Amino acid sequence: MNKSLFLIALSLFSFSLFARHTVSPYDNRIDATLKIIKTRGENIISLGFTRDNKWYFITDQRHYYQDQSYFNNLRGDGRLALAPTLKAQIATGKKLVSVSLDETNNWIAYFSDQSVVVSSRDHFIKSGLWSKIESLKREKTPIRKIQLGPHGAWVIETRKYGVEVRPGRGKVEQARDFEQLLKSLNLSRANLKSLSFRLRRKEEKKKYHYTLSTGTQYFKTGTPESPLGHELRDYLKFRDEISHIALAPDNRFVLISNKRIRPNSIDILGQIEMDAKSGYSLQERMRFHRVPGVVMAHIKGGRLFDVRSYGYKNYNEFSPNNSYVYTGVASISKSVASAAIVKAHEQREIDIDKKILGWLALSNGLPKEWFESLDSSRAGFLLPGHFTSLLNHTSGLGIHGIGSQKPKDVNNTRDILMGLNGRKKTIPMTYSYVNFDYSGGAYTLAESLIEDFYDISFERFVRNKLFSPLGITYSTLGSLGYIGKRNYFHPHSAENWKSYGYLECGGKAAGGLFTIITDLSRFVQMLISNGRINPSTNSKVVLAESSVQKLMTPAYHPRSSLNFCDATTACSHFQEVCYFNQCMEPFGFRWDTYSALGLEVSRATHPDTTPVFFEHGGAHNGIRTHFKAYPKSKEGFIVFLNSDCYTTTSGVDRGGCVLIKEIIEAFDRHK
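Request: output the structure for the sequence above.
Response:
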């Protein structure tokens, strides 16, 4: 459907290329080209990316192409190819003013003598652009720039303001927003400095991304916390005037101002968004698996680098998702609870290396009541266990998971331990340190012992020991208040898309944490940075390095020798592995991880015998969560999604539990 045209006054000015160059392996050819342009003192006329992610720079003196043969054959629907046509036109003495490409690989070039060369005249006649250019020529209105975008969008920049807008064809929300933005800027007489569209790839349908700068402010589609958003804020903070922006279909970008240039390589979240599995985008996989919403965070260099959200927080109400939704993260609660308990051990307030029976002998209230309810044979199973065995799943206690429920039905700690109100009782099933047995019941016992020792709620204990030192203010263990419920990440059924509504977990240590992804990233950042707030050696210490190592040390069999080992000194016993310079027989969590205190740590180690990565996931009704981090590279990844699993009639598993595996694999693939 044709819409009207908006003529924007945009003065393209010459710029100097100063100072900072950011080089990445992916984009070193872009960076090298920009250095050449700077050295030669050339002014960039046009720069951009094609639908196939090929970049080009057109200056007042030369043309630069990522792939010369590609641009020698780039002809869209027509007969004229871009690179040789421009070369031939300029050879006749014409001065190039503007070049732009659209998502169909059709291109248009405008020259100072008001002549226009296009790949296909029919293509631009259909879009209405050709007739508008002819009209401007008759009016003798000079054109400063022609910008092509997705869905047939185009903008002509002239010396004077117009009153019409042509955002593109099709019912695309961002296109309507763009139309309103241009109208408001026209009324406010804002001077536009730069405008760029991100072209759609072949398989993408309703995509419409743009970035626009007026010199004192910017407007963009997408998540504000993206790398592009950070760069734009940084530019405006130092009052740089952005002269050129180029957005690539794979989420790379190039920014050029009067002071600096910033070629950006594609970030991990952008790669996952574009290629979540076997060439399918994240949105396509979300639709396939019936997952309404996804939130992802990327930690880079030990700091939060990017947060993005997709889809809906409540599909039944079509409530758009955002980066600050409150999520019940299920078993990730165990990681946070373990860190708080280890902090108390570090402060010598408690001793988690003490035997469980010693703790129980000094306890009162619920822990004592629970222990006295056990028959002697069951109680004897606890004899070898230390408090740490409750946190690394080697205690022998039953009750795999706690689960989530409606608030009126939530089981409390007593219900979980004593087996009341429909619960199965938490009892020792085997001797401690016999094998790995994932146990939410063990964490509930640990929670009860901590509450008994400190005589405060477990939520207050974790807040004092961990949340407050980390600056975590929005997270809680237990229940969400009114504000949290308004921005709640609703769990959904993958079978019918329906929301389960607001759910809670009665076991706070085992699965009761409500958090937002930026809060959880602070916790992961701290572990990556050896217990500090951030990688800086001057930053606040939340956990001692020895405590971080304690958290990441695998649970091991009591017969382990614990002899010294390193990259050159191997363990003598064939069943032992070298971990943190100790020979041990660890208990496995999965095929590639060992069980540690509230964490899974990689079986693979670096030469210094430290783990390659640590991680943990969570699963409640309609919710899947996961974090994974690599301490050496100080890189991490967090993902929340709001859907559970179901099996099709043909026996194929689909839903959130499958998608989250695909996303984790995509992170490792693109890392």
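Residues 1-28, 161-165 have pLDDT under 50 and may be disordered.
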